[in-house]
Amino acid sequence: VAGLGNYGLRGTRHSMGMAVLDRLARQLAVAGAWRVDRRCCADVALATAHGLELVLLKPRRFMNLNGLSVASAAEIYNLGPEDIYLVHDDLDKALGKVAIKLGGSARGHNGVQSCISALHSSEMTRLRVGIGRP
Q1: Is 14 annotated as catalytic?
Q2: What pLDDT score was predicted for residue 8?
Q3: Quick one: which of 6, 11, 34, 83 could link to 79 by a disulfide (CB 3.0–4.6 Å)?
């Protein structure tokens, strides 16, 4: 599960993916387990939920390079694009509204486009979190 965002700009609406991952880590009782993994240039925490092993990932790169971290982690943890969930902001959704999308285009989202390019696939499941337009 990768929370897309701009690592240096945490707390902004465009880093909503990272905020969701922080919340998920708290709910899974692994909030204190984040560690820097230099191999994929990301903060990583391992968790278990409903019998599934999860790799929680917050790239330490700018949004348009998040895919490099996601692709590196996929290789390290032997994951295919179909195993990856991207959590990211969506300007076209009202603030707080969410939607799940399987595959498809990036719809202009630079972080998603970076993941599609780095993984050579658009098969990732996406949790789109509405941030609305200013």
Answers
A1: yes
A2: 83
A3: 83
pLDDT along the chain (134 residues), means of 10: 91 90 96 97 96 96 96 98 97 94 93 98 97 87
- State the Cα–Cα distance between residues 71 and 77, nearest whole angstrom: 10
Catalytic residue among 14, 50, 88, 120: 14
User: 11-48 pLDDT, tens per residue?
Assistant: 888 899 999 999 999 999 999 999 999 999 999 999 99
Cα separation, 121 vs 24, in Å, equals 26
Residue 81: give its domain's CATH number.
3.40.50.1470
**Measured between alpha carbons, how far apart are the two ends of the chain, in Å?**
28
Q: How many CB atoms lie within 10 A of CB 83?
A: 13
- Domain total for the chain? 1
Q: How far apart are CA 4 and CA 6, in angstroms?
A: 7
- For residue 95 the two structure tokens come to 């603030």
Reading the block at residue 78, the tokens are 């032997």
Structural domain including 103 reads 2-130
